[in-house]
Amino acid sequence: MDQGLDAAQLLAELKKQDEWAKAIIFDEDLNVITHKNCAASKEELAPYLKAYDVRDNTIGAGFVLLGEHYEVHRWHPPLVYGRRGDADVGEGISLARGICKKHNGKRVYLLITYELPIVSARAVPQQINFYNQFIGELEKFDIKQQ
């Protein structure tokens, strides 16, 4: 029988990611599985479900998390990421999407933020590893079809 994702275990693992300021794991039905410093509402999470639909729309609109706007500058499904701030004070954001067999084969999203001096070159590989180890398998995309 499918045991589902273990929210307590995922939260424990999220807490170990001390270079991530915020993190939230949610599914395609906007059910929050767990979060670290990121109690976002379903209304705020809803636009993330469309982040992979049209590149120009996502980059144009950016992301909003907990009332803060982030510019999106990289659209490389299954990863979409960007930042807010300037060279001295800033926060990056990265969204990853995959399929989780433990969650009835649904799409599950992992959204993280990270503050300078942590940059995407460090945080995004951590996010990929976390997703693959604790959640499921990142989706495979054919960019030509996007």
Tell me about this structure.
The chain is an alpha+beta fold. It is 25% helix and 36% strand. Strands 1, 2, 3, 4, 5, 6, 7 and 8 form an 8-stranded antiparallel β-sheet that branches. It starts with 6 loop residues before the first helix and ends in an 8-residue tail after the last strand. This is Profilin. It comes from Paramecium sonneborni.
Task: Identify the notable features of this structure and list them briefly.
146 residues; alpha+beta; 8-stranded antiparallel sheet; 4 helices; 8 strands; 25% helix; 36% strand
How do you describe this structure in short?
With 146 residues, this protein is an alpha+beta fold. Helices cover 25% and strands 36% of the residues. It is globular and about 40 Å long.
How much helix is in the residues?
25-40%
Shape: globular
Question: Structural class from helices and strands?
Answer: alpha+beta
The average pLDDT score comes to: 93
Q: What is the secondary structure topology, with strand pairs?
A:
Elements: H1 7-16, E1 22-27, E2 32-36, H2 42-45, H3 55-61, E3 63-65, E4 68-76, E5 79-85, E6 90-100, E7 106-115, H4 120-135, E8 137-138
